[in-house]
Amino acid sequence: MAICVLVWASVVGFLLFLLVRFARYSDGDFTLQWLEWRGKKPEEELFGKVVWITGASSGIGEEMAYQLAKIGSRLALSARRENELERVKKKCLEISQLSDKDILIVPLNLTHRSTHESATSTVLKYFGRIDVLVNNGGRGQFSLFVDTSVDVYNAIMKINYLGTISLTKPVLNHMIERKQGKVVTISSALGIMGAPLVTGYCASKHALMGFFNSLRPELTKYPEISVINICPGPVQSQIVQNAFTEDLSKKHITFGDQFRKMTTERCVRLTLVSLVNNLKEAWISDQPYLAAYYLWQYTPTWAWWLLNLLGPKQIQNFKSGVDANASFF
Ligand SMILES: NC(=O)c1ccc[n+]([C@@H]2O[C@H](COP(=O)([O-])OP(=O)(O)OC[C@H]3O[C@@H](n4cnc5c(N)ncnc54)[C@H](OP(=O)(O)O)[C@@H]3O)[C@@H](O)[C@H]2O)c1
């Protein structure tokens, strides 16, 4: 009897320990956390690899350039602002052993789809191959649907969704020829869940998830090609400043503070762990958002209950000019 009680107490104690650990310290899904501990390391896998990053002029893409430069990957950096890419390249060279020829700047607008094939040829001519494409470039949105012009939905789909799949096409053709490569797409928690104020952004990220989850089984003949979807929660970057609002000409004005968001460094580190371990989908977020992914996936009724509770508060915060997510804390 005493042994039985002891065993039960140990099991309950262990489960409680896991729960507290999850609530306090977890910032990635269980598989990702395990792989960060026991899986392949980015430093061992990415040295010398050719990685093409879109949206490399700020935020997550910029930080990814720095971490990959330190590891010794060769980089193609893309975004619209060439001067910002030059700045990122300069810093990459300062903090790493790379030399000038290891980093190629390829100015690119995701909405100019007719240029994507020639941009791919430029990278291939220079490096001879592309090992990893990181589809990171994109824009956010903060506005209520009832106030928002349909032009905003058109614009956000053209950048986040159509621009991304347009660039993926020529790169994937090359990977299929080589029978190897990785296509990593920075989707979002909003590629899985819904939320108020981001209807267009959320739709574009859901579209990406649907696209890449359907592309993956088309590539089963090529086991060395991986399609990897990364779903970060809030991360420190310029995304709020650059977000679309109700109409294309209006800038977002309520930035909020960033200190409650995951650091860009941590998000990129976990993205690289997901990449080298070929995770099909990775959830990367601090709490309380990480718990929401699990609610959304496994207990949608509770997730809807919570969203109905917090959604009106988020809208109220937004309308009164404070950070919409202030209601989570
Ligand atoms: N930060 C977050 O909380 C968060 C969470 C989940 C997912 N994400 C995703 O992470 C990715 C990176 O965003 P971020 O947070 O790092 O934001 P960011 O700092 O605003 O960076 C966005 C990048 O995308 C580029 N970009 C924007 N429009 C473009 C266009 N038309 N063509 C080519 N490049 C374009 C920007 O460069 P140029 O302006 O120079 O073109 C910039 O380099 C996005 O896909 C975003 O949806 C972010």
From TrEMBL:
CDD domains, alphabetized: 11beta-HSD1_like_SDR_c
Origin superkingdom: Eukaryota
Keyword Nuclease attributed: no
Swiss-Prot/TrEMBL keywords: Oxidoreductase
InterPro entries named in the record: NAD(P)-bd_dom_sf, Sc_DH/Rdtase_CS, SDR_fam, SDR_family_member_7
One Pfam family recorded for the sequence: adh_short
PANTHER family: DEHYDROGENASE/REDUCTASE SDR FAMILY MEMBER 7-RELATED, DEHYDROGENASE_REDUCTASE SDR FAMILY MEMBER 7
Family membership noted in the UniProt record: Belongs to the short-chain dehydrogenases/reductases (SDR) family.
Name of the protein in its database record: Dehydrogenase/reductase SDR family member 7-like
Organism field: Gekko japonicus (Schlegel's Japanese gecko)
